[in-house]
Amino acid sequence: IDGGYVLCALPSGVSGKVFDDVEWSSHRTAESQRQRALALGITLAEFSKEDAWFDVDDIDDLHALHARLQQNPGLCPHLDRLLPIILTQQQ
Q1: Distance between CA 30 and CA 86 in Å, rounded?
Q2: In this structure, how many other beta carbons lie within 10 angstroms of the beta carbon of residue 38?
Q3: Cα separation values, 55 from 4, 22, 60, 64, 81, Å
Q4: 30 close to 81: Cβ distance less than 8 angstroms
Q5: Are the beta carbons of 56 and 62 closer than 8 angstroms?
């Protein structure tokens, strides 16, 4: 895990300040974001490290994502349908 995060869902009305003073593009991004949210009194719900995902930065990562989705049918059905099309176009 590289220190980033996949998703940050916030309730309406939360100030954009939640993204201020975050250590972006570092191994501490997620921890920095977590501390900022807590400092603003935002309640957090997080996935366990066992459920952590990975970055998709290049074609090899896309293939790894496709393999992971094939092992977990129904996890992301829309993406599961699109990935074969995208991967075929990349060949």
Answers
A1: 29
A2: 11
A3: 8, 19, 11, 10, 20
A4: no
A5: yes
Query: Which of 65, 49, 55, 62 minimizes the C-alpha distance to 89?
Result: 62
DSSP-assigned letter for residue 28:
T
18 alpha-carbon distance from chain centroid: 17
Q: What is the pTM of this model?
A: 0.57
Contact 37, 12 (CB under 8 A): no
- Give the CA distances from residue 18 to residues 3, 8, 33, 39, in Å, rounded to whole numbers and listed in that order: 18, 10, 8, 9
Q: How many residues appear in the chain?
A: 91
Residue the block writes with tokens 């009194």: 41
The per-residue pLDDT for range 42-69, each reduced to its tens digit, is 988 887 777 777 778 888 988 988 898 8
Single-letter residue type at 1: I
